């Protein structure tokens, strides 16, 4: 029996659950919306302030992901395979940060839509989902 060292993390398989989790949130709250169960807050609540605040929080996380963490992801070296690049522990640490920011922004937006029924948080969540889909492993491995 041979002892193997710790395996290098690979960011590629972790991207799919992030996207599917956010899509799952959309699906649940779309079902609630279709059943007339949204907004979840009682009527005397100031929906504009809460919805706008949650949309703004979602967009702030989106911007942090784009402006702070995405530029810190290293580029793939010439001759390095995409799989080897995505398995590099340093790349793993750096690529997860924008994905986590975008996922968090999407969840905040979806929840903002659910509790207020306003469209602004939902649009912010859609932008976060779009960022997650467009800037997945293929984007970082092929840039």
Could you characterize the architecture of this molecule?
This protein has six helices and no strands. By secondary structure, it is an all-alpha fold. The protein has a domain at 47-142.
SSE layout:
Blueprint: H1 12-34, H2 47-69, H3 82-87, H4 89-116, H5 119-134, H6 137-142
Helix pairs in contact: 1-4, 2-4, 2-5, 4-5
Helix content: over 70%
Poorly predicted runs of 5 or more residues? none
Integer-rounded radius of gyration: 18 Å
Main sheet makeup: none
Please provide the count of β strands: 0
Nearest-integer average pLDDT: 90
Structural class label: mainly alpha
Morphology call: elongated
How are helices and strands ordered from N to C? Answer: HHHHHH
What proportion of the residues form beta strands (DSSP E)?
Answer: under 5%
Number of helices, counting only DSSP H or I runs of 4 residues or more: 6
């Amino acid at each position: 029996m041979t002892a193997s060292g710790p395996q290098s993390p690979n960011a590629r398989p972790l991207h799919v659950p992030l996207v599917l989790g956010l899509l799952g949130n959309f699906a649940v709250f779309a079902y609630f919306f279709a059943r007339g169960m949204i907004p979840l807050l009682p009527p005397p609540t100031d929906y504009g302030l809460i919805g706008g605040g949650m949309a703004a929080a979602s967009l702030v996380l989106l911007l942090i992901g784009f402006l702070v963490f995405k530029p810190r992801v290293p580029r793939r070296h010439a001759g390095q395979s995409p799989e080897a690049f995505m398995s590099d522990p340093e790349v793993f640490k750096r690529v997860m940060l924008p994905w986590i920011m975008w996922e968090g922004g999407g969840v905040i937006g979806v929840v903002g839509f659910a509790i207020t029924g306003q469209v602004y948080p939902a649009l912010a969540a859609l932008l976060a989902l779009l960022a997650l889909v467009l800037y997945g492993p293929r984007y970082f491995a092929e840039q």
